[in-house]
Amino acid sequence: MTYFIDRRPNAKHKSAVNRQRFLERYRKHIKRSVEEAVNRRSITDMERGEKISIPAKDISEPVFQHGPGGARNIVSPGNKEFVAGDKIRRPSGQGGGSGAGEGGASNQGEGTDEFAFTLSREEFLEFVFDGLELPHLQRKPLKSLEEVKMVRAGLSRDGVPSRISITRSMREAYARRIAMRAPIKRALKEAQEALEAEERKDSVLRNPTRIIELQAEIERLEKRIAGVPFIDTYDLRYHQLSAQPQPSNQAVMFCVMDVSGSMTQNHKDIAKRFFLLLYLFLEKHYEKVELVFVRHHTAAREVSEEEFFYSRETGGTIVSSALNLVNTIIEKRYPVGQWNLYVAQASDGDNWDDDSNICRDLLIKQLMPQLQYYAYVEITPHDHQSLWHEYESVVKQFPERFAMRQIVEAGDIYPVFRELFKRRLSQSS
Amino acid sequence: MSATRKRKPIATGSDWNFSMLERFDAELARLADEYRLDSYPNQIEVITTEQMMDAYASVGMPVGYHHWSFGKQFLAVEGAYKRGQMGLAYELVINSDPCIAYLMEENTLMMQVLVMAHACYGHNSFFKGNYLFRTWTDASSIVDYLVFARKYIAQCEERHGVQAVEQLLDACHALQNYGVDRYKRPSPISAEEESKRQDEREAYLQTQVNMLWRTIPESPAGISPLPGSLHSDDDPLGLHSGGLYPSEPQENLLYFIEKNAPLLAPWQREIVRIVRKLAQYFYPQRQTQVMNEGWACFWHYTLMNRLYDDGNVDEGLMLEFLQSHAAVINQPAFDSPHFSGINPYALGFAIFMDIKRICEAPTDEDREWFPDIAGTPWRETLEFAMRNFKDESFIQQFLSPKVMRDHKLFLVVDDDQVETLEVAAIHNEQGYRQVREALATQYALSVREPNIQVVEAAIRGDRSLTLHHVQDSRRPLGRTVYPVIRHLQQLWGFPVHLISMEEGRVTRRFHWPVEDENSVS
């Protein structure tokens, strides 16, 4: 007796719990690998899983087994030239060396040093933001700067020659030609019939004058038909364009970071998480996100991502140099109408005293009116310095669009981010 | 295959549907009946690739409790599969009543028919007929028991935390190969009774343990002091005269733990029991790999050929089958890069085919080697061989000189005290018996796994547990011994000593927690 059951519709992922248990158990190993991956990868390259290797000995499930040594008998297939009593040099490499060491005794492959598997994208991000509780990222309508885009909107009778719609114009011409020729053709037909009737008459009864008249009439009508123009200005149709407001679907994110001597690699790693988070968020909202990396000590420079995070420089700190540079770049490359502009700044709070109020003015007067959002994180366990206090007055002016936070360790990043996210939510609803 | 074709093939091509499978199954059932194959009813489940990987990860158990090691297994299978390093097995079959067999939806029609012949009639009849399965497993209750185990362990996780349960399972898994009774028949498991009697048993077990560990020592009546066990000078009051506990060495470590570990909570004993019961369930499979696969291959080969002879399948399907069959029973030579030990499918298939040959067309050699079976009806002889042996004794009984010649088997002695390996015997007149003996031994679990037994629990002393490893041919324990006795110590709760002995001499001592003495040796 046999029953057939189609189990295919059943739930997949029966092993999901076990998989989670495994990841949980080797959290430390996996986290280390993920951290290495984050440091190695570019910010724009976080949206994929990661191959993780764990030393096999760390995850083995031990059972009692025989170690190498002692005497053992091994039966193997495929003898070609051996006869009883032959001595064979021991193959180099202990353990399973004879190739038949395992014999039929074990079918479990052993001896691989690494246990490798792949984290899915979600699992990877979960480890990246371990403890940060990555919010549920969704595409939400953001308030965007309006940009006008010309779109085709029907046809019109006048326009420039480059926008002529050939098909439509030809169709109009064809209709006009039919319409204009029809009455002439009808008259022509009548005249021809009359002429034929006249010519069919007996030669005695024919009216020669009438024939000449009709022939002249036919000639005149044929001329008129030929005279109907193939195309007329009257036929021409032009594509019409109308101006439509278009939300911009591209954004640029400026990463601004202080690279003066006081910023350690640890500070930079925290900053990287922060930039990454904002990037992931923006990527959900815009079709295209560009990144601009601006680093500064006493002078600011636009650099590659690699250089941004990993090269070291020393020197003092003048924040306004970076803000000026951002402003210049916006003017040159990212016209406000077409781009949503975001700036994320990370610093340890150091700045030349005289410079902080310059920064404030620069922000209030020049930058903030153009920006969607400005997020500032100060990575320091110490007291605030002048820059923080000056920025506080910026917050007062732009409470909607300027956020600042102090961060001591990676776990503090999320609240800053949540602030941005929450605000947007309430605004859009 | 020259039989007259009288019928049209049931189906051709590589696509299949359920009605085709049903018609093929009916035909296979008819043939199996003709061959008097006795099997459980079949429950054939069609599953996806991913479900197959799930099934793999839980060692084929249709329901399993949760544990990270199954997740690891899943990741390993998934990784290897995605990298294209391995194909999934085409089938998986579970020793249960009804016998559950999985078919993957990606399989071709030929493959589905082959799997049905192999699993649903081959393995199935083996499960039902072989004495080990009959004695040690209860096919009718295993699925219920698995459900019970899963529920119980989930409850424990809720009550005592995932981590506590996980650690306990880790320890039990490390010892699960030592959780089987090798010689006496276990009582059949029944999920219903298990849960019904569970509370009762918890209470009962605890009283047993309490009896054993009560603090006021009292010489139990009936146990006479062992002669000379301890000098009366050391123990004038005879407090230690109760003899050793246990009175005989115990080979079922998990059973001993479940009944005797002093500090385990009742739920912990229950989990030890679950792991032990499942290990017991899988025990016959570990001992009948060659026979089980050989039997299934023999029958898929026989049945597929019958389908063809009767005109139920066409040449195209048959060619596809033969190619697949040849791959399954391929045995690379020891020096081939593809060699990974002896292929149990190949060896088992060869032996069963050879038994049939010996029955039908015995040579003089066969008459000399197998006077009992040469010329007998093959079907009865095959049934006898399937029912009454395990790999070790099956090879010892039925491996014929012809199969040894065909496989060119040879025996190498690897002794670490000798500089070279020595070829002790090959497939010739002088070597047959020695090769066969050695191959049979190679499949004996008692040789494959170190022989370890509990010899003493110091119930009147420091409560330490002493085990003996009976060493053979100077083969030492592998490096995993420390992690394993650490797990054992966690279960036992007090120090654990493991002593390797060979011919009455102590060769090595292992202790957990590690003692100083050890670092010296």
TrEMBL record, chain A:
<protein>
    <recommendedName>
        <fullName>UPF0229 protein MLE19_18285</fullName>
    </recommendedName>
</protein>
<dbReference type="Pfam" id="PF04285">
    <property type="entry name" value="DUF444"/>
</dbReference>
<feature type="compositionally biased region" description="Gly residues">
    <location>
        <begin position="93"/>
        <end position="106"/>
    </location>
</feature>
<dbReference type="InterPro" id="IPR006698">
    <property type="entry name" value="UPF0229"/>
</dbReference>
<comment type="similarity">
    <text>Belongs to the UPF0229 family.</text>
</comment>
<feature type="region of interest" description="Disordered">
    <location>
        <begin position="84"/>
        <end position="111"/>
    </location>
</feature>
UniProtKB/TrEMBL annotation, chain B:
<feature type="domain" description="SpoVR protein-like N-terminal">
    <location>
        <begin position="15"/>
        <end position="446"/>
    </location>
</feature>
<dbReference type="InterPro" id="IPR057008">
    <property type="entry name" value="SpoVR-like_C"/>
</dbReference>
<dbReference type="Pfam" id="PF24755">
    <property type="entry name" value="SpoVR_C"/>
</dbReference>
<dbReference type="Pfam" id="PF04293">
    <property type="entry name" value="SpoVR"/>
</dbReference>
<dbReference type="InterPro" id="IPR057270">
    <property type="entry name" value="Ycgb-like"/>
</dbReference>
<dbReference type="InterPro" id="IPR056174">
    <property type="entry name" value="SpoVR_N"/>
</dbReference>
<dbReference type="InterPro" id="IPR007390">
    <property type="entry name" value="Spore_V_R"/>
</dbReference>
<feature type="domain" description="SpoVR-like C-terminal">
    <location>
        <begin position="450"/>
        <end position="502"/>
    </location>
</feature>
<protein>
    <submittedName>
        <fullName>SpoVR family protein</fullName>
    </submittedName>
</protein>
